[in-house]
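Exercise 4. Each item below gives a protein and its sequence. For each, produce the structure-token representation.

Item: Major facilitator superfamily (MFS) profile domain-containing protein (Endocarpon pusillum).
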Amino acid sequence: MRRPSLSDARDAKDVAASIVPEYAQSWDPVVERRVVRKIDMILMPFMWIGYGLVYYDKAILGGAAVFGMTSDLSLRTITSPPSLNPPVISTTRLSWATSLFYFGMLAGLYPLTYLFQRFSLGRVLCVIVVAWGGIAMLTAAVTSYRGLFAQRFFLGFTESIMPTAFMVVVSGYYTQAEQTMRQSWWYSATGGWTVIGAALNYAFANITGGALTRWQYLYLLAGAITVLFGVCCFWLPNSPASAWWFDDEEKVVAIERLRMGQMGVRCQKLKWGQILEAVLDPKCWILGVMMGAAYTVNGAVTGFGPLIVSTFGYTAFEALLWQMPLGAVCFVSILLTGYLSLKVPNIRLIMLMTCCLPVIAGCAMIWKSTWSHHAATPIAGYTVIGFFAPVTSLTVSTGMANVAGATKKSYMAANIFVFYCVGNIVGPQLVKSQTLQRHYPELWLGIIISYCLVIVLAVTLMFILRRENMRRERMQLDEKEAEKTAFEDLTDKENPHFRYVY
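Answer:
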């Protein structure tokens, strides 16, 4: 059977139009395996490093806080009368330094999402990521908490493009069944880079002498690596149709795999009707609120993690190293749930609810245990709250696997990310230094309530998706029609052949 000629094909619809029908229905499975392997080998390491840098940038603040930044930039203030001994210390400025990063992400989310939806994804990412790296390096020049506030806002503004771009990339290259595993691969960078970041922070914390402080070196390193990564972003293609690593036969198979799943492919035209549909779609709101509630943990851990661990009776150096077990739990649990979702159909939301339980237990362990020198119970609780990572990973993958239509996919990614920012803004504000003696009750109680809400919403979403699938199965539609409409950029609601996963 002859291979199709793609000499005049410019995008996915052109590729689809050039395919001989008999060829599309009987591609070589060896070629498909080669296609998937190439995508995995090129895109996954790229996104793992990229999202790792996003996470590392945020986590540096926690390490820098225990090694001089709080005093150098006046992030701690005394709120008690001078006669009181010991004085009451407020970390409100540090809380705002953490939260302002996410205000910047909120501000940058929609304009930057519009840019990569409308223009070349790789070139937009290249410019924005290089700017992000430059801003990270400039942190070393900050001399006051006001300067840090401004730097954190603009750092968040530029970084806002990464998670939404990666969600859209995965949904544009992988089938519905494959997406959760692949989303988990790049998302596991949150755990992997927690370990890497803790090791780097520990290494730089041992630097003595030199022209700069230890926390300044951390930001210079992170910024320099980010600039190099930004240059590499230039070669990221818009879709499988323009992927430079495929030959013509592989492009056909890559596109046809998406046709079979009714997921559609990347379209650079902005469709306001799809935005309106997304705004009125209950599952977009449910998944968004789930993400916001789940990420209250992260906002507190990235900004205050080492400081909180140091109150368990550990030194500043030991507090940095205790971030490693937390990161390991995040890393392993994300990959494990991603693997199980690939092997067992419709298990995503069940695993999500299961992973909420260790987080709730961990918060209770920290809150109600005795904080003494090298106390074991609170550090064990701190470690198991790392199960928040698969909760958020499964929320992302469930959201992106259950929408179709290019504009609606971008909206879903942006919507999830808005609530991600909200959760990260709220988390640091729950850390009240005045309640240290009572073990930060607002923080742990707030997280417990949030994760109970996640469980309730997950049950609701499962019911909605199962009921809709059953309704569509009763329609008994012609499968031949499904092949004709696969590349019409229909949304999941417009396309009756689409099936939801949970």
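Check: Strands lie at 77-78, 89-90.
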